Request: fold
Amino acid sequence: MRIKKSGRISLGCNFACIHCQNWEISQQFVEGAVYSEREIASLIDDARRRGCRNQNWVGGDPIPHIPFWLRVLLWEKEKTPVFFNTNGFYSAEASSLLRGVVDIYKIDFKYGSDVCAEKISGVSNYWRVVTRNLREARQHGELLVRVLVLPRHLDCCLKPIVSFISEELGPETRVNLMDQYSPHWRAAERPELKRRLDRAEWERAVEIAFEAGLNNVIM
Amino acid sequence: MWQLWRPDAVRALEDPKVVSSMPRYVGILKGRLLPRFFVSRYVPVEWEADSSEEELWELHRASIREMEALMRDMDSGRVHLGDLGCPPKSSLLHLKARIGECLMGPCRLCERRCGADRLKGELGFCRVGREFRVHSCFDHLGEEPEVVPSFTVCG
Reply:
């Protein structure tokens, strides 16, 4: 594939999570390539023809790239479903543009508390924004929710997250409950994020998810 | 080769938990249904070069309802792709791309609403400006079973 030019890039991300596992590329500049929308479309068509199941829009976060992606879709020839792989912190305007385009919304539901979201990812109004987008995603497409369990964030984050999913989105919502947290980048700035989950914590997390009534959990 | 690494992914599209939570996605992969963006291409919408953002959103509200009605008709087999002829030169998907550009300057795509004028090349909080810069693309085998293999573009 012809690369038009290369240059300094950063995986665009609207969050600044202190434990980011991709921080070298999401929080600073590295070498990358500038493709035309038409070139990306042709890569996606080739991928579908060789059996890939979807086009996975990732970042950092794909939110800053939505306008580019909409133009990529104009060039695509194959019927490749769109998998929007996001932290869910997009505007109401962006949500309207995604409606009628995204087939699967994969949203990382990270925090049950605005205080934790502010301290760890540097965003405000987290709960209001992400729960609004989760509700809209469920109405406008199909939903897959990822929940990365953070050490010592079971009561403040995991409990409200799984209750919201079960009560507002439905206990049948497909949820990927993840135990693979590991400390990266500046995670040591918060004492509880210095270590991985321990076994008892993970067992408790699974219990919490089932107590909330979730019945479509991937572990 | 992915079948060797992820045998669970091979069976995923038959898994009742997958089929019940993402029936359209499974339908698309089995060739019965169309991805949403494909349907959006068949909804004609026209606007003027000097239409305001508000006028574009007005058109968007009406066309998205039309798109979802068309999708229901196609999903239930009342309308077939062959009945629709060629896609129009100016469609709902084109309108979305046009509005997407408006949202880049001042930037209102994420809820930070940092307001950078990315159309003029300013970088947002996210460090993204005007261009689509790609770090990598690859066939991802590490996602949920129904998603694998997934053509992943990291931008």
Summary: Residues 5-218 of chain A form a domain with the TIM Barrel fold (CATH 3.20.20.70). Strands of chain A lie at 5-9, 30-34, 54-58, 82-86, 104-108, 142-148, 174-178, 217-218. The longest strand of chain A covers residues 142-148.
